[in-house]
């Protein structure tokens, strides 16, 4: 799954008043990231195999002026493919971090090209909602309870959002 509990959610101590969130470790921390079907190693292999397959038909053209006419177009194809896949990797560098304390929950999204978004609320008032329909995707997962309702795991697949939903419910019920 493209998410993991770095610190598994646990029930807070029942020793009276909760310490402030800056004075203790979080109850739980969840990291979410997009699934990469083509890892960097596969990216390099794909470009290498593409160059090899494009070079095979050129063997018969060695020493011919036609080779020099075709070569710029083939280099442009490989360069364009490399640039497009590299841009895709850059756009996919997203990390969402949900941190849960007894008195506060934060959701920080570190997006592509240094873009950051942050949301926080009191976990007592946070509700985890699974919108089965009506959202931009099936089984749209949101957190509400702060100044606005935010989506969590927008890049996750439908099955992954369905698996994450009960885990978030349990984590917030333990924090209350």
Descriptive report:
With 176 residues, the chain is of the alpha+beta class. The chain has two domains: 3-12 and 23-36 and 94-175, PH-domain like (Roll); 40-91. It contains three helices and eight strands; from the N terminus they run E-E-H-H-E-E-E-E-E-E-H. It has helices at 40-55, 65-91, 158-175; strands at 3-7, 28-32, 95-100, 105-110, 116-121, 127-131, 140-144, 150-151. The strands form two sheets. A five-stranded antiparallel sheet has the order 1-2-3-4-5, covered by helices on one side. Strands 6-7-8 form a three-stranded antiparallel sheet, covered by helices on one side. A hairpin with a 5-residue loop joins strand 7 and strand 8 (150-151). Helix 1 (40-55) runs antiparallel to helix 2. The protein is elongated, with a radius of gyration of 24 Å. The relative contact order is 0.17. This is Integral membrane protein. Keywords: Membrane, Transmembrane, Transmembrane helix. InterPro entries: DUF2244_TM. The chain crosses the membrane at residues 42-60, 66-85. Pfam families: DUF2244.
